[in-house]
Automatic annotation (TrEMBL):
Designated name of the protein: DNA primase/polymerase bifunctional N-terminal domain-containing protein
Residue intervals of the DNA primase/polymerase bifunctional N-terminal domain: 1-147
Coiled coil: none
UniProt lineage: unclassified sequences, metagenomes, ecological metagenomes
Pfam families associated with the record: Prim-Pol
Annotated source species: marine sediment metagenome
UniProt cross-references to SMART domains, sorted A to Z: Prim-Pol
Amino acid sequence: MGWSVIPVGEDKKPLVKWKPYQERLPTEDEVRRWFGERVAEEDYPLAGIALICGSVSGGVYALDVDPRNGGTLEGKSLPGGPHSRTLHDGGGHYFFSSDIRLAKRQGILPGVDFQGERSIVVLPPPTPGYTWLEEPAGELPELPTWVIKAHRHP
């Protein structure tokens, strides 16, 4: 898919220094070491997976909806596309693509954050507590115009 991914623990914290992966994709060897069979003490075969959003991952961005803080996308138009669900609180992530570089912004709507350039989003399996409701397949839908407007004019 061309996404920059890193290993994370159950606490969602990166298990590697991840700044380099904000600029480049991990190598195949790095991905194997992180997520493949354990061959050395520093390997992380039981790690969860996090996506680094933004241009490094081909313009992938996400809306992070937290219903515990009043987050909902009810009444907002959303194209069909991949989204995940956080099993413990009913929140979720909605994934989109855009050629426009946008920074991370909290509260573009009540309880809804925009995961922009250089931010991370925990992905479903194998990360505990996350599941795909619709898995990524092919191209992601374009970031809706209302999200861009809300991002620019909070």
